[in-house]
User: What shape does this take?
Amino acid sequence: MKRLRALFAFLFTLTLLVPAQAQDLAAFEKRVTVRKLANGLTVIICRRPEAPVFSFTTLVDAGSVQDPRGKTGLAHMMEHMAFKGTHKIGTTDFSAEQPALERVEKTYAAYDSERQKVFGRDPKKLAQLEKEWRDAIAQADKYVIKNEFGEIVEREGGVGLNASTGYDETDYIYSMPANRTELWAYLESERFLHPVRREFYKERDVVIEERRMRTESSPIGRMVEQFLGTAFDASPYHRPGIGYLSDLQHFSANDAIEFFKTYYVPSNMIVSVAGDVDPDRIMPIIERYFSRIPSGPKPLEYVTRQPPQNSERVVNIKDPAQPFYIEGYHRPDYRDPDDAVYDAISDVMSNGRTSRLFRSLVRDKKIAAFAAGFSGFPGTKYPHLFAFYAVPLPNRSNQEVQSAIRAEIERLKTQDVSDDELKMFKTRARASLIRSLDSNPGLAGALATMQMRYGDWRELFRQLDRIEKVTKADIRRVANKTFVENNRTVGVIETMKPAAASKGAQAQ
Assistant: This one.
């Protein structure tokens, strides 16, 4: 189960439980149709005729974990490129644009080859090769109709056009009027049938700037990157999802196409549609368009497992910024039998103003502006972290919030949670499920995720059975197994005065 969503107030939760009978498994089985196309693509249709609209999720079972060695950030780049159109959309003349794009790749390969030389690099030759490459980009840009894919979607009533690349998977979403299903099927299948290398290096520069803004110019961003790199020295979770700067400056559009050919195959994708759609009418449309995508074997997956940690690890960043504290503990992946127990711990410790960390650190001791604990960091598909973090108030220290967090962890290990805490966790979990199914986008995404992770969307409801079975003893047992010193990685931002920080940077 993914991390529990936002808190519902208790009275509102009770009102949600009234229609819960219509949200149970038996009711959904009557409305959900699942079919695997001949090319291996899994399609899920959920009829929900409350309004004449529908939403979809195209889920690709590949994320940043699948980035090739030396090419981190490539999964994220592939997501960006999926909005650049096709051989028919986004171009004035693809027959002329295609050779121009091939010229871009040829000149880039020559430029990058010279640039990567350790010995014998010729600065004059490098400058000339770079000029030829940039001239080729300018020539290819003459054929581009910018943002045409998105403009078509919006012009036809589409909203919420978006995508995201996580460590575990990549998803593409938007919603459209119910009378635009065939247009949607054409557009969505076309961009995976005919991917293009259009504006690749301009988009790569956008990602580089994104990295500079979110990581290199952000003390918390830098700390989190180093924190994950320290906690995961073997697992691919140690790599930044956005990519290392040197990799971003190196990989090519051809590399992105190779990534696409490997992972964007029907057997590795799920298309989930929810809304005012008749399965008998829309399924033939989906088959007509999506069956055009060539089949391919689902990629074999081998991911290095993180060895057991044998000592506490610490990342300490000194910066003229607000202090920040985080500590993380290794835990198994989402398939672990105790996954629901970790959800319970997260809820008791962090869910809302009645949670233990808020009451202790924010309300009572007044040492933190915010404090929380959560699972699924930085993903859930592979063994990951359960983390606790806090933002100290002015004139309060990381040591103070650390001690307060550790005290709450120790209480979790030595004392049973109360009957009310356990009951409220289970009530909120059910309410959270109901809320997630109360919108077409949430429903399409949830069905796709469960089908991808478990091979059966029904796990969306079965997880409630596992939640109901969580006991007080389970919480103490898991807390004592997981939250131990040798399994802990700590990250802190220690505030320095600007002058001292400047001297430290010069010394480095």
Remarks:
- DSSP finds 20 helices and eleven strands in the chain.
- The first strand starts at residue 32 and ends at 36.
- The first helix runs from residue 10 to 17.
- The two ends are 44 Å apart (CA to CA).
